[in-house]
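thread: overnight batch results

M.L. [08:02]
morning all. the overnight job finished for the chain we discussed friday. pasting input first so we're all looking at the same thing
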Amino acid sequence: MEYLENRELSWLKFNKRVLEEATDPDTPLLERLSFSAIYQSNLDEFFMVRVGSLTDDEKGKKKKKDKKSGMTASEQLDAVFTAVRRLQPAVEDAYRKTMDELSAYGFEHVNFDTALPEELHFLELYFKREIKPFISGLVINDALPFPFLRNKELYAAVRLNTKKGMNIGIIPINNENRDRVIPLGNDGKRFILEEEVVLHFAHLMFKGYKVQDRAIIRVTRSADIMVDNKGSDFRERMEELVFKRTKLAAVRLEISDEFSRDALDYICRKLKLKNVRVFNSHIPLDLSYLFQLQDLDDDPKLHYAQLTPRRASMLAENRPVFPQVKAKDILLCYPFEAMTTSFIRLLEESAADPKVVSIKITLYRLARNSKVISALCLAAENGKDVTVMIELRARFDEANNIEWSKILQKAGVRVMYGPKEVKAHSKLLLITRKAQGGGYDYVTQIGTGNYNEKTSTLYTDLMLLTADRVIAADAEAVFDALAKGVFVEAPQKLLVSPLAMRPQILALMDEQIKLARSGGDGYIAAKINSLNDSAIIAKLIEASQAGVKVELVVRGVCCLIAGVPGYTENITIRSIVGRFLEHSRIFIFGKETKEQKMYIGSADYMSRNTIRRVEVAAPIEDEKLKKRIRDMFSVLMSDNVKARVMLSDGSYVKAERSADDAPVNSQEYFYAEAYKRVDEKKEKQERMKNAREKKAAAKKTTKSKTAKTATAKKTAAKTEPKKKAASSAPKKVGRPRKKKSEE
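M.L. [08:03]
and the structure it wrote out:
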């Protein structure tokens, strides 16, 4: 259908937008290199997860078709491989151009053709002394087993010239004890990569053989494996799964430059890969080292301007967080505001507060040295009832979460692993505290992002803190359901999947459709990471056809195409890709009236979120907070620097900006606003301080005047008796004076 897009191809369009940041002249040079690395990292995960899944479908569900594009798994894979190949020249061009421009700052990626004679001598010695003793060359032929090539690791592959049969040499390169970037001068800016050195001297690893051809290879393996939460020792089975994933089938082979065709075919046969899954690259196969180059030059022209998360403007520094939330709902915005001085502060204060009786929280992804874990452990050690629902099935974070679960249990925390059928992806916290005079008070937190201090400085997210008792009751119901392995069916205020989110969202959209059909101004807006839920897409199309204005900010996958006559002509779709990863989710229904309904939460408009996960979204009911989010959404829709607008053919173009238009970079705008709010708060505090000091000075002056008056009165009171005494004393008798008339 002309108004629908295949999920995988839509994702590749998103990654293309990431790659565009690697060529944008407004992006500082070293930051461009980072975007090249992010593009490749994204693509690695895409092959591991999505291509891995499609590969399984190709084998077991050959006739199954994608509902949106009508393509089989095999057809989708062909389309994916074609799209990736078409992007490769742009990937290589971005890398080369950026490195060329960085040469003006002393950066140079050296190869054996450009190395100086003394450098060539150094590299030969370096290989023999620092590398060769720690690596080994494996000869492979039909009489010898093919080695297991680890996921995403680099290997030197050589074709060995022999009279009979095929002989391949394989040299594992990755070594955690050595730095992959070998500095050659200019404080490390002039460098060569270890794999290039190993490949150049590979012939020294195979004595008795003549090396006919050589290349670097890299295998990507599927990560498409799931386990349900059944049985008594779920954590143990998850540990087995993490190990098993490393052994899954290869789904892609990358190779540097050109390589002997028959030797390449031989490797593909051993890996059970078709040639269509082989991808050539003329730049390094692993670009993760590019992040290291960031630290080699602190010239501000090469980096983004340094920005530091500010203190949350809605929180006073001199009062505990809990009573502040009890007084009013509080909205936190990351990365513009600091998690450590807001949410982490709340947890740490609660852990030490003797009146806090319980803390319940859901965890999905955590920072390496998590302060969240530290606070929860401290709370348990202080005798509080701490319950943690930690999702062990968080893809690529399974091993971390397994270890965190062990640490929490040792500290006395009650640990749960979530429902058997679905992942728990919600970002939910409930704190219960004894109230003065009896009873309990509650603070509930609902967020759009993980409790991760590191990503809170890199991802845009929102977090609501509220003392609303109805929301607290809903949160308690969610935790109770998680403990019992069931699902919440009828929350009062929260939207809770898998049973009580999508129906409510569709009903809210129906209200706007009904309004538009009756002549009113229907309006639906959302900011999400992805859109593929068929029921929601169908309702958005219905809304557009009814005349409802629909505005969507969708960062990544978007299976709905905007602007298609007769279907989606009233729908606008934008994607913002910039310095920070857009991650917040906002749902808006209705225009700027008191009837407008607004939510923030952890779910995207994807079926995996709306009907196959435990997700939570919270209503924004405070009018000031609603206005703040409306203003944020308005800025997002006005972005003309990092926003791309979807056209009716599904392609994206940069948002238009005329010569008269001021540039609007939404992420920079929000950071500036965070700085401004803190400055205004300081100014207000300064004004209040000055007013207090002025008032105190005036009071002091008045007091001084009063004291002087009192002193004068006392003095007067003391002298009055003397005057009276003087007036009553006998007068001296003397000669009487004559009157004038008598003179």
